[in-house]
Write a structure and sequence with these properties.
Blueprint (H helix, E strand, L loop, with lengths): L14 E3 L3 H11 L2 E6 L2 E6 L3 E6 L4 H4 L3 E5 L3 H10 L2 H5 L2 E2 L3 E2 L4 E7 L5 E7 L3
Parallel strand pairs: 1-4, 5-9
Antiparallel strand pairs: 2-3, 3-4, 6-8, 7-8, 8-9
């Protein structure tokens, strides 16, 4: 068996479940992702060149409530201020935590999407 060259990998995307697909599409647009519809019940969301995921019109609570995604950004506090000002929690039933310095060397906050998927959005701490 021959191993595939590591440089052959081009992209990895996770499938994210949506309890209410239309609501989740709007939610992720407001978070700042760009939607690329791929067909009925599937949208690729991108942010910049290195971040993408696939939102699917499928929901399994056990999967959604045990899925965690991590987004590294330049300034977690700026992201948090923008998301807090947009009142995502009130308008989409999302949950937004507050930024904190973590023992693993990051400052981050949590964001649960309308279906319960957990995101950690943060930046590296100096040193």
């Amino acid at each position: 068996m021959h191993a595939v060259e590591p440089s052959a990998s081009l992209e990895l995307k996770v499938f994210v479940p949506a309890r209410d697909f239309a609501l989740s599409v709007e939610f992720y647009r407001e978070v700042g992702f760009v939607a690329e519809p791929l067909g009925e019940g599937l949208v690729c969301f991108r942010h910049g060149e290195r971040c993408a995921f696939l939102l699917q019109d499928f929901y399994e609570q056990g999967l959604a409530h045990n899925l965690m995604l991590h987004l590294t950004v330049a300034d977690a506090d700026a992201w948090w201020r923008r998301l807090d000002a947009a009142d995502l929690a009130g308008r989409y039933g999302a949950r937004l935590g507050v930024p904190e310095d973590r023992p693993w060397g990051m400052r981050d906050f949590t964001l649960h999407d309308p279906g319960g998927v957990l995101w950690r959005i943060g930046h590296d701490l100096p040193g």
